[in-house]
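A protein record pairs a chain with a discrete description of its three-dimensional fold. The shape at a given residue is found from the number at the same position. Here is what such a record looks like in full:
>
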Amino acid sequence: MGFEGRNELVNSSISYFEKYTHKFINNIQTHYRSEGKFLSKECEEAYEELFSMLLTKDFDTERGKEIAKTKDFNKACFFEFLLKTYIDYSKHVLSNNLNHKLVTNLAFALERYGSIFCTICHDSSTAQSSINVFSASSSGGFFIHENFIDTFKKMISVGEKLEFLNLYNGVPVRTYGEILQVEDASIVVKVDLMQILAMKEEDCAYIIQNQYLQKNIKANILSVNIVNCTVTLNNFESQPYMHALKRAYPRVHPNEFTKIALTHEDGRVANGKLFDISEGGIGVVSNEDVGFKSGDILSSYIHLHMPYSNEAVEFNLKFKLVVLIVYQNAYRYCLEILPNQEDAKKIQEFASRRVDETLVELKNQLSLYKRD
């Protein structure tokens, strides 16, 4: 199955895509680890085979559909990193002064995949503004997005509000905001000042899906007006996963730098620092990977000072490693506190007090802004 510009793309860039296969698979592996999932060899090979088919002239549609049925294969994940491929290739073309038409040719290749694996079922009850777009054109390139601006226009016409969720030092701040204005690529929203401060802390805004929005959204902050409690947002992106929605407890940062050692029963030790803490578990950042696996039982002594009282406390706890995430050349260990431990109540009290302390910090900031 061919596509417009295939020969030109293959002749000029086949070596680039052959080398890029390794990066594509690494991206998939990292994504699975971040979700706490195991990527089997069979599933990994399915991703690799489908990616290698991208520039194959005689693409076997039925074979492609069969590969996509592999256990744990995720179409959304596959297309997310095809889009990443498109972005990286665009940068490659730009930095090497290649013909920009090559980028459009790749867009046609990706559209070919979309026509095979993506179908849109028409539902007369679904607003036109919420239909996903997956298309390529000789002038515009490749697009996969929800028509957010049209959706926001519909919401403002019926008086529907947006629900925001941001984290302020790990504590969730969740309020509604009123859409005041919709421009070609941005919106102005009136929202609680506490929410604005949480947005500024994360340097972006997160919008929760509703009957109009198919998915959660991440948006850039274009400008903020503290006096009027308005924020202008643009660059809207769908967020398939919003981890803040999945958290059972607020996950806050410790009130002091705290070294920590995670010890396996076989004697292996990973040294790091306490990154965050909740009533259900902790996060540890380390430069060491000693081979711990998800499900491993690890123990640790933790020395902290209790919020408000500054009382020195020690916790001797066992944890289950939920997932190990590789992030910015470091390793983040996400650990769940095992039940029925004497010190579990003490660390839960610490986390609860730290949440209260963080909210006090936020309210103090609010009073400063309001005074100004």
Summary: The CA atoms of residues 126 and 211 lie 10 Å apart. The first strand starts at residue 132 and ends at 137.
